[in-house]
Amino acid sequence: MMEKSFVMLKPDAVKRRLAGRIIARFEDRGLKIVAFKMLQIPEDLAMEHYQEHREKPFFRDLVDYITSAPVIAMVIEGKDCISLIRKMVGATNPAEADLGTIRGDFALETGRNIIHASDSPESAEREIKLFFDESEICSYEMPDREMIYEE
Ligand code: GDP
Ligand code: MG
After folding, report:
1. Is it the case that residue 151 has pLDDT exceeding 90?
2. Between 13 and which of 9, 27, 54, 121 could a Cys-Cys bridge form, CB atoms 3.0 to 4.6 Å apart?
3. What is the layout of strands, in order, in the sheet containing 32-39?
4. What are the beta bridge partners of residue 37?
5. With left for phi above 0 and alpha for psi between -120 and 50, is residue 110 left, alpha or beta?
6. Residues 15, 74: contact at Cβ < 8 Å?
7. pTM, 2 dp
8. Would the CB of 149 count as within 6 Å of ligand 1?
9. Ligand 1 atom with the shortest distance to the CA of 116
10. What pLDDT digit, counting tens, does each position of 42-95 carry?
11. Residues around the ion ligand 2 (C-beta < 5 A)
């Protein structure tokens, strides 16, 4: 099924100038970027985005980290792409992430794990709405679509 996922390159990815290489992985896979912006996340948006973790001991550090510098927020579209992108991202703790995953190749610690991706259709819908207006989500055809998808 065609899905949209919310993907965010965190401040460490931006400051380490890894954005192009990370984005290229999604493009190379055949996924389609349908929304894209750089922003410095205000504290209230950070707290809303990570609301499920508000009682965790790391919550304050997480909010400080994610608001410390600009992020790149994206909506990425593709067949079953929510779980696919989670696989490409790798485990939350980069030290345990498989080699070949984004976190496994570019990061070392949980508190600096460079990228966020939605973990379910419900969180994707919620997160996309938090960061993007409907009007900011683009629709276009990939000319090589038939080379990527069988149907
Ligand atoms: P994710 O879905 O793989 O990003 O992981 P979670 O939803 O469990 O956690 C959200 C984010 O909180 C992670 O990506 C980390 O940036 C951060 N985080 C999670 N666990 C810890 C922790 O134990 N310590 C710190 N400093 N940050 C954490
Ligand atoms: Mg999560």
Report:
1. no
2. 9
3. 32-39, 71-79, 2-9, 115-117
4. 73
5. alpha
6. no
7. 0.98
8. no
9. 4
10. 999 999 999 999 999 999 999 999 999 999 999 999 999 999 999 999 999 999
11. 119
Look up tokens 């000319």; give the residue.
143
DSSP class per residue in 11-68: HHHHHTT-HHHHHHHHHHHT-EEEEEEEEPPPHHHHHHHTGGGTTSTTHHHHHHHHTS
How many angstroms separate the alpha carbon of residue 96 from the centre of ligand 1?
13
Active site residue 116: yes
62 CB near ligand 1 (under 6 Å)? yes
What's the whole-number average pLDDT of the chain? Answer: 98
Is the distance from the beta carbon of residue 123 to the nearest atom of ligand 1 less than 6 Å? no
Domains and CATH numbers, the chain: 1-132 (3.30.70.141)
Which ipTM score applies to this complex? Answer: 0.98
User: What local confidence, expressed as pLDDT, does residue 46 receive?
Assistant: 98
- Residue position matching structure tokens 């973990």: 119
10 is in an annotated binding site: yes
